Amino acid sequence: MISTTDANWVETFMKRDMTSIHAMIYKLATIKNCAIYWNIQSSSFQNSTTPLPVAMLQTIYTDENPHQSNNKYLLGVPNQLSVKFIHHENFPDNIPKLNIDINISILQFALDSSQYSQILMIMKNMNNYDVRRQIFLLRPNNAVKSHAKEWWHYAYNIIVRGKGRTKNQVSFI
To answer: How many other β-carbons are positioned within 10 Å of the β-carbon of residue 144?
Structure first.
């Protein structure tokens, strides 16, 4: 839940006063019992006959007690987090325009080695996706016969400089 507060962090309706040079906006966000889990043995959606959004919702949503389920939680319940934002709208550039204060009162975080490996592999694949996108953007739009020099330059950048090598393709997505 996100709410606007006054300077004492009491929830209130604030009228925006643009005449004040040092007008500040206070926001308070609270998160309770948010769970994030990462199951390394989950099945792939690739060969599913069910539409993807429906299959994902059926897999993700559960009424089970989190402590009795087979999910491997990264962030477990119970947890409680509050974030205080102070936005200084009209301050000079040498003063920070945003102050963030994070208060964690309850937190359960666990990460095993297989989850860590998969998260690293996903991050590498995100980087590979970005590299492939850049390669595609560098690709000449002209025909090969009439613009051979551009295509040789493109091929040189891809092969010799190593742009475009991707490894560790994920199979569970």
So the answer is: 11
pLDDT of residue 101: 92
What confidence tens digit (pLDDT) does each residue in 36-54 have? Answer: 878 777 777 777 788 888 8
Is residue 78 reached through a cis peptide bond, with omega within 30 degrees of 0 on the bond before it? yes
Higher pLDDT, 33 or 15: 33
Region of residue 168 (phi > 0: left; psi between -120 and 50: alpha; otherwise: beta) = left
Q: Write phi, then psi, for 11 (nearest 5 degrees).
A: -60, 130
pTM across the whole model: 0.49
Q: Using alpha carbons, select from 97, 92, 81, 96 the residue that is nearest to residue 25.
A: 97
CA distance 89 to 87: 6
Burial class (CB in 10 A: 0-12, 13-18, 19+), 154: middle
- H runs (alpha helix) in the chain: 52-60, 113-138, 148-159
Task: Please report where in the chains the tokens 């199979």 appear, as a residue.
Answer: 171
Contacts of 102 (CB under 8 A, 6+ apart): 81, 82, 83, 84
